[in-house]
Amino acid sequence: AFVAELTAAVHAWGGVVSYDLVPRTDTWTVIPKDLEFWSTAPQRRELAEIVDYTILMSYDQFNRYRPGGPVAAPWWVEDTLVYQLRYSDPHELILGVPFYGRVWDPNDLEHPRAFPLDRLERLADTGTEAWDDTYGLNRVELPDGRFLYLEDSELIADRLGLVGEYSLAGWAAWRLGFDSATLWEAIAADSPGS
After folding, report:
1. Between 20 and 30 A from 165 (CA), which of 12, 55, 70, 146?
2. In three state form, how does the secondary structure of the chain look?
3. Using one digit for the tens of pLDDT, what is the confidence trace for 8-29?
4. How far apart are the first and last CA of the chain?
5. Of the candidates 158, 61, 170, 152, the residue with the CA atom closest to the CA atom of residue 99
């Protein structure tokens, strides 16, 4: 009811309303259990019918509550998208992507450090890469014992291909300031003419 009232007020002065929505899939277990409401509480269909656009935050598959993995494995991103398309018109759905990755200390998994993609890429250059079949990404072991998943500019640019593949309204990112010239070059190279 609040969103409906707010949307009507914003439309009255010519505005557009978007709603950022946390991800969910059929198979993803949200832990800790007491935070599950973040993914299960939103009335996805009802909200999508009210607002102009839903922005699906297809990231934070792993974080301090779910430690040790990538911010958003490619297959997981698509799973979150397919799940949300049950409730949203694709032309009113915006894919949210992360402009960051996390570095994990195996001795302190509850306190990962987030790095903008360009810094993450430079850090990855100092380590040893090995393919991780579980996530479909390279895992990088750093010389100091920390590790990261190589979620780089090319991966993000490639991920934006889902916008065309599923006829989505567009994409959004968290966040400006974590971007770089390399990232924008990769995006431009992956989508010429746009």
Report:
1. 70
2. CHHHHHHHHHHHCCCCCEEEECCCCCCCCCCCHHHCHHHHCCCHHHHHHHCCEEEEECCCCCCCCCCCCCCCCHHHHHHHHHHHCCCCCHHHEEEEEECEEEEECCCCCCCCEEEEHHHHHHHHCCCEEEEECCCCEEEEECCCCCEEECCCHHHHHHHCHHHHHCCCCEEEEECCCCCCHHHHHHHHHHCCCC
3. 999 999 999 999 999 999 888 7
4. 37
5. 152
Q: Tokens 């990404």 map to which residue?
A: 137
Residue with tokens 């009802």: 46
Length of the chain: 194
